[in-house]
């Protein structure tokens, strides 16, 4: 994890190298190390599975709540065999946006976008949703 996010490349590494790679590796404890203690975390479902649909938005306040959510959900993601791949990131003045994909075991993809704000080098606002609304 970069010690300080100062560029778009740093943000991409923080998101992919620590957050999403840890989620994909079933390690919620490491994934949440990028989150501020008081993070506001909003996630609209991208990959529909196990009764979770694109109309599902989960909102959590604080790193502990995010950990509990991820720790519960990671098993389902492992069973689905999905991975997260950040494709582009932009960052300036403590704020950033990114485009990414959820990739299925058959290579199919579901694109998503995110907005983050950082405080003290940690993500304090995290908002993610599908790039396109489901049909």
Account of the protein in words:
- It is globular, with a radius of gyration of 14 Å.
- With 135 residues, it is of the alpha+beta class.
- The protein contains 3 helices and 6 strands; from the N terminus they run H-H-E-E-H-E-E-E-E.
- The mean pLDDT is 89.
- Helix content is 29%, strand content 40%.
- The chain has a single domain, classed as Nuclear Transport Factor 2, Chain: A, CATH 3.10.450.50.
Provide key terms for this protein.
single chain, 135 residues, alpha+beta, Nuclear Transport Factor 2, Chain: A
Detail the topology: elements first, then pairings.
Layout: H1 8-24, H2 28-31, E1 35-44, E2 57-61, H3 63-80, E3 83-92, E4 95-103, E5 109-119, E6 122-130
Parallel strand pairs: 1-6
Antiparallel strand pairs: 1-2, 3-4, 4-5, 5-6
What does the radius of gyration come to? Answer: 14 Å
CATH architecture tag: Roll
Regions with pLDDT < 50 over 5+ consecutive residues? none
Strand order of the largest sheet: 2-1-6-5-4-3
The CATH topology is given as: Nuclear Transport Factor 2, Chain: A
What portion of the residues fall into strands of 2 or more residues? Answer: 35-45%
- Assembly state of the chains shown: single chain
* Whole-number count of domains: 1
Number of helices: 3
Pattern of helices and strands: HHEEHEEEE
- The first-level CATH class name: Alpha Beta
Number of strands: 6
Q: Which structural class matches the secondary elements?
A: alpha+beta
Mean residue pLDDT? 89
Sketch the major β-sheet: 6 strands, mixed
Question: How far apart, in Å, are the first and last alpha carbons?
Answer: 37 Å
């Amino acid at each position: 994890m970069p010690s300080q996010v100062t560029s778009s490349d740093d943000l991409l590494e923080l998101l992919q190298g620590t957050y999403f790679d840890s989620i994909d590796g079933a390690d919620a404890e490491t994934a949440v190390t990028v989150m501020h203690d008081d993070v506001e975390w909003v996630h609209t479902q991208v990959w529909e599975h196990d009764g979770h649909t694109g109309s599902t938005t989960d909102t959590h306040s604080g790193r502990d709540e995010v950990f509990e959510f991820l720790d519960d959900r990671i098993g389902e993601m492992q069973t689905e065999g999905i991975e997260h791949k950040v494709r582009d990131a932009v960052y300036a003045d403590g704020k950033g946006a990114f485009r990414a994909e959820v990739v299925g075991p058959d290579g199919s993809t579901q694109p998503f976008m995110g907005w983050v704000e950082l405080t003290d080098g940690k993500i304090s606002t995290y908002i993610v949703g599908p790039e396109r609304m489901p049909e």
